[in-house]
Amino acid sequence: MNSTTALTFQATTGGIVLAILTIIATAVLCVLAWRRSGYRTSTGLMELLRLLIVILIAVTLLQPEWLTMYRPESRPSILVLTDASRSMETRDVIDPSSPSTQPRTRAEATADLEDESRWQSLSERFDVVQESFSSSLPEPIEGTDLHEALTNALEEHDNLAAVVLASDGDWNVGESPARAASELRKKGVPVIAVVQGSETRLPDLDLVRVDAPTFGVAGKALRIPFVIDSSLPRETTATVTLTPSSGETVTSQVTIPAMGQLNDSLLWTPYEEGEFELTVDVPVDKAEVIPENNKRVVPIAIRKEELRVLLVESLPRWEYRYLRNALERDPGVEVSCLLFHPGLSKIGGGKGYLDGFPGTMDELSEYDVVFLGDVGVEAGQLTLEDCRLIKALIQSQASGLVWMPGMRGAHLSFVGTELEELYPVVLDPSQPRGWGSQLAAHMELTEAGRRSLLTQLEDTDDANIRLWETLPGFQWFGAANRARAGSEVLAVHQSQSSEFGRIPLLVTRTYGTGKVLYLGTDSAWRWREGVEDKYHYRFWGQVARWMAYQRSMAQGERMRLFYSPDRPKSGDTVALFANVMQDTGEPLQGGHVSVRITSPGGESETVRLAPEDEWGLYQGFFTPEEPGEYQMTLTSRENDATLETTLAVRNIRRERIGQPARTDVLNEIATITGGQVLQASELGQLPDTLATLPEPQASIRRLRLWCHPVWAGFLILLLGLFWTGRKLTGVI
Question: How far is it, in rounded angstroms, from Cα 272 to Cα 249?
Answer without folding.
Answer: 14
